[in-house]
Every structure is written in C-alpha cells, then in structure tokens.
Amino acid sequence: ATAVFCNQSLLEAMSHGVIPIISSSNGTELIVSDGVNGFVADHTLEGFRNAMKRAIELSEAERIEISREAFLTVKRKFNSEAWREKVNELYRDL
C-alpha cells in the first residue's frame, strides 16, 4: 500500500469545514472528491473559473453539506490514528 502525505494546510482548512477548490493532480482523489467535499478544477485558468462558479452557485443547504463532508473527510481519513497507521505502513514497506 502507498502512504499519502499531503498538504497540511489543506487538511487543516478542511478540518474547519472550509470547502477546498484544488487543482487536479496525481493523488487529488485521495483527499477531495469533486462536488462531494470540495471542488477539483482542471489545472487551467478556465478550470479554476469553472470550479469557482460552481462553488459560488451552491445553495445554502449544498454549502453546508459539502462543508460537513470536508470536515468528516479529515476526521475519518486523516485523524491521528489513521496517520500513525500510514507511517507504520510506510516503515514496514521499507
């Protein structure tokens, strides 16, 4: 298995319910699911504009749900116990 170490700022923001808008890159799907717990934009100016437009057009109920999912993603997948397991897995694989 692969250990994923990602942007701590992104995880911290998501842990407070901030809805992320991130560029599509290798491993993005391990953190952000487009339209579920944030937005994944094509790595272009137009892609970013489209993601911003989608975010701006969210209803209040949609905004609350995506914010909640951002928070829960960190709570479930990136808590200290999960982090410890990933680090242990990394060392075992060496």
Distance between the termini: 11 Å
Number of helices: 4
Structural class: mainly alpha
Low-confidence stretches: none
* Beta fraction: 5-15%
- The number of strands is 2
Following the backbone from N to C, one meets helices and strands in this order, namely HEEHHH
What share of residues is helical?
55-70%
Q: What's the shape? A: flat
Major sheet: arrangement of strands? 1-2
Structure description:
This protein has four helices and two strands; from the N terminus they run αββααα. 55% of the residues lie in helices and 6% in strands. Strands 1-2 form a two-stranded parallel sheet. The protein is mainly alpha-helical.
Keywords:
94 residues; mainly alpha; two-stranded parallel sheet; 2 strands; 6% strand; flat
Q: Can you give me a brief rundown of this structure?
A:
This protein is mostly helical and 94 residues long.
Write the layout of secondary structure elements.
Layout: H1 8-15, E1 21-23, E2 39-41, H2 45-56, H3 60-77, H4 80-93
Parallel strand pairs: 1-2
Helix pairs in contact: 1-3
